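Lecture notes, unit on protein representations.

Consider one protein chain, 180 amino acids long.
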Amino acid sequence: MNHRHAEPRPLPVIQAGRGPHDAASADFGRRMEEFYRRVDEAIAAHRPVCINRGACCRFGQAGHRLYVTDAELAYFLERQSPSGLRPVGAADACPYQEGGQCTARAHRPLGCRIYFCDPASRSWQGPEYERRHAELVRIGQESGLEYRYREWLAALREGPTGCIGDSTAARGTSSQTLTA
């Protein structure tokens, strides 16, 4: 799949931690929950093993990057409580990883769910990711989100800039920029 990297535009959905604001965003939330449920079931069927307890979350050390769609970012920010939002520091690591544990596990992005450094996982990860990514694009488009695919830490640094329903409310205290 060809992933294009677009210039940043305002995120079309979300007021961090406030939950759905209207029927459209409630439907988006339900669709994302169902999507991640199916993803988690498919991954569990492969029986992957986590052998490095969070090493993959230290992107610079692991030698890779996590990319997310705006649909994933919108869902993450909507589900993460305002008090749970964390600044992105200078370290090249996910701010939600602590001591080998994900503190935002329930609403983590697709790449976090699929990636395992277990060598036995390599045969299914790419095809599974591409198939599920196509579903994410479709959910986003059907929910009125423009497609963007961007690096996780950069997306978090940009912070939420819009909200379904009340676009002025998103500019209040719950819509901070996530930088240290």
